[in-house]
């Protein structure tokens, strides 16, 4: 089949990915058919194959795009200063990025089980690359005498789980503003590794 | 249909729940049929209805039992001493309990979406009751001047997510022993709320 040309492909491709993300998050990858994705987009099942060869490719591309985006977004955000300030910035960044993408977060955790081995290996490599950002900050903090971390990989895992967990309970318009939530989590992250922001230090 | 009597019901009931838990965790609730659960147990699809009226009831009972168990198990474990020592004990307890039940943890997070409203309300009430244990410890720690917690409900959510996250990466026989993992997470939990174990205090 020929690929749809020009603006049609450019508009419908993202709509296919959005629909797949929404349905995978709502029902689980295994329970969603290509036909259901096509219906959600409002195109025929046959037309869907113009945009993706199969459901596994859709899942893989969603998960890969999510991780590539978060890695690229941090590179833009990293203040590259003192380790404690970088940890503060990382905690705020991680919460902002993930609160904006609750469905992608849910799928990233839930559907690792559904990835074929080659795809799983690619996703695992990207996930480790993102975790390595935090590991590097913690290692720099220990080296600088700013942090107390007995096991850097464990601490990175623990902090990422703590920060990501905000997506399970935070609701816009609730008791706390996003900025307050970011500040409180960042303080807890710093406390968990025995650090404080350089601006908060008492000399 | 008559209920199977005596030892058969007592042996097969738990096997039905184990099979459902395994299949829900592996494929997602929506993708698992009653027929598939019966096949996993090795009984006929008709016989399965001796043990449960439907799939929703199975899911609900699994999630309810998990939460009732963790609440009861903590009541047995709670050292009822200084708040910082209770937090240390809670962190270790939470990790031990959840590392022993990775499939139940996965389902508890993933399949909230699949619960019917009445069942969801029951599960939410139990979940809040468990979270209240940690909120009470933190509030007592603040009252005793042992902890610095700007927002107790937020801090409880953050710590529970951090501790539960251990199930996503810890593997028996890996680099770290369970006891080490418990100690390191408990230290991070205490640090996150500005506390330390009473035995670690310097006078």
From TrEMBL, chains A, B:
It comes from the Bacteria. Residues 10-70 form the HTH tetR-type domain. The keyword DNA-binding applies. Residues 33-52 bind DNA. Keywords: DNA-binding, Transcription, Transcription regulation. GO terms for molecular function: DNA-binding transcription factor activity; transcription cis-regulatory region binding. Coiled coil: none annotated. This is AcrR family transcriptional regulator.
């Amino acid at each position: 089949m020929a690929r749809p040309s020009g603006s049609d492909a450019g508009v419908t491709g993202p709509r296919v990915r959005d629909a797949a993300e929404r349905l995978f998050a709502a029902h689980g990858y295994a329970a969603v058919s290509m036909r259901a994705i096509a219906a959600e987009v409002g195109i025929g099942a046959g037309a869907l194959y113009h945009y993706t060869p199969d459901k596994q490719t859709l899942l893989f591309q969603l998960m890969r795009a999510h991780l590539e985006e978060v890695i690229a977004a941090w590179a833009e955000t990293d203040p590259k200063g003192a380790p404690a300030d970088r940890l503060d910035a990382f905690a705020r960044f991680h919460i902002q990025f993930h609160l904006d993408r609750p469905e992608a977060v849910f799928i990233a955790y839930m559907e690792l089980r559904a990835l074929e081995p080659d795809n799983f290996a690619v996703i695992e490599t990207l996930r480790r690359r993102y975790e390595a950002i935090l590991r590097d900050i913690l290692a720099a903090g220990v080296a600088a005498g700013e942090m107390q971390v007995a096991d850097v990989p464990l601490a990175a895992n623990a902090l990422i789980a703590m920060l990501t967990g905000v997506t399970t309970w935070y609701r816009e318009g609730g008791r706390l503003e996003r900025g307050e939530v970011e500040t409180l989590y960042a303080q807890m992250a710093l406390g968990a590794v025995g650090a404080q922001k350089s601006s908060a230090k008492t000399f």
